[in-house]
Write a structure and sequence with these properties.
Order of helices and strands: HHHEE
Radius of gyration: 19 Å
Shape: elongated
Distance between the termini: 36 Å
Strand order of the largest sheet: 1-2
Strand content: 5-15%
Length: 124
């Protein structure tokens, strides 16, 4: 039952705090023995699976870009966005889960946005 909160499960949570993830990993490590390689490997595998599952779900969400001054978000007002946000959304969600922070560098010329680069949250 405890692992279901990481995937939305019965409580329908949309976010999992780092404390909840730590509690889950403590529960997953049988008896809290963090010295056995089998237990540590199991915790790493669960963390990897959970991060990938959630990041894939967020990156797969359909999105649209609309002008700020439009009254409604309908197909007729949707703008073409020059960048594919799928990989950026995936990386941002993964960093938010692992470090609770994500940093994106906007690269632009004087007129328009040229690129977005996800930065390493460990070094920021």
């Amino acid at each position: 039952m405890r692992k279901s909160i990481l995937t939305g499960g019965v409580w329908g949570k949309k976010a999992v705090s780092l404390g909840d993830l730590d509690n889950f990993l403590d529960w997953k490590l049988t008896g809290g023995d963090a010295n056995r390689p089998e237990d540590l490997y199991s915790a790493v595998a669960w963390t990897f699976w959970c991060v990938n599952l959630r990041a894939d779900a967020v990156a797969g969400i359909r999105y649209g870009v609309y002008p700020i001054d439009s009254d409604e978000d309908t197909d007729e007002f949707e703008q073409d966005f020059p960048l594919d946000l799928t990989q950026i959304l995936w990386a941002v969600e993964a960093w938010l889960q692992l470090k609770a922070a994500a940093y994106v560098l906007k690269r632009s010329n004087r007129v328009a946005l040229v690129d977005l680069q996800v930065l390493n949250s460990n070094t920021m």
